[in-house]
Sequence to fold (252 residues):
Amino acid sequence: MSLNWKVSPETLIDPSTRSGSGASAFIKAANGFQSGWVTVTFHEGSDCNFFNTSIEVWVGKPNAPVFDYYPSTFGCTAGEVGVEFMESVDSYTFNVSGGTITQSNSSSHTWQYPVVFVGPNDYGSSVTIYAYASNNCGSTLQISETIDVECNTGGGGGGGICCVTPLIVINPNPSPGDIDISISNIEELEAYQEASELVYQVEVTDLLGNSNKKGALNKNGLSMNLMHLDPGVYLVNISNKDYYETYRIVIE
Fold:
């Protein structure tokens, strides 16, 4: 079979790679400012035989991300902040002012997932999250979102003692099936709370809320065997009477 291929729309593509022959196609954006979805169509035709197939691919650097969800107000706990998932992205970079990203325990984090957990700093009144996306062709402009901080007890905004909450660490994530859950700031929590208050209920569910595993997390941590779960994304819900947070894990 003698295959030919062509690309549309041609305006996004360098003129030298808009068409060709063979079972594979090499294309590139017209310039560093061009990006978008293009359709590559392979075709072979005659009076007696006809073959035609197409595939959509992204060319150029990503579009600017858009914040998809975030808490309307930070309380005393870390909240999940995410941008929309984009197929054209290799990595997402998050930076935060006025808080800490729990995945890296710092103000910055870059990885392949479009979500992070952010905890407000003590005595802060707002947290600003910045995000941009990257692929091999470049990075997008940075977007930002500012979220107010409200302390749940004691009145007023900001953090302080009332906002000393557990910093949960889940490793590894992604996981082949076994995860370890720990509290990285347990000494700080013990200074302000009774031992009985430092026991957290843990429940692993699928995205539909179906329970798959339960356990109890204390200062010694918790190990969970999830080898029975199919590969995919699951939720780890951690709670006690004063705390509730949901974390996402990936089982490979």
Remarks:
- Residues 127 and 239 are 23 Å apart (CA to CA).
